[in-house]
Design a protein that fits this description.
Number of strands: 0
Structural class: mainly alpha
Distance between the termini: 26 Å
Radius of gyration: 14 Å
Number of helices: 5
Strand content: under 5%
Shape: globular
Largest sheet: none
Length: 91
């Protein structure tokens, strides 16, 4: 969902990463996901703390009481941007 591809495509890429062909949208999503990961590593260097932040309900208006991961899994690239910007503002 995060990469914007069906699960069978992801599994095929996972088996043969060199055969993966990414379009501009998927490259953009991958860049945003890596930015989110990097920001979480800076803000919450312990993996358990970063995982907890992603899964814990968040009362910031951006998340409306839902875990940030729910917003990331919406399927919309704009939600990846919103979370990345939120984390960048905190860093």
């Amino acid at each position: 969902m995060l990469l914007g591809v069906p699960e069978p495509t992801y599994r095929r890429w996972h088996k043969q990463p060199t055969a993966a062909r990414l379009d501009v949208n998927q490259l953009e999503r991958m860049s945003l996901i890596l930015d989110i990961y990097k920001a979480l590593q800076i803000l919450l260097p312990r993996a358990d703390a970063a995982d907890a932040w992603l899964h814990r309900p968040n009362h910031n208006p951006l998340f409306a009481g839902q875990p940030p991961l729910d917003r990331l899994l919406s399927g919309l690239v704009q939600d990846l941007y919103v979370v990345r910007q939120h984390l960048a503002d905190l860093a």
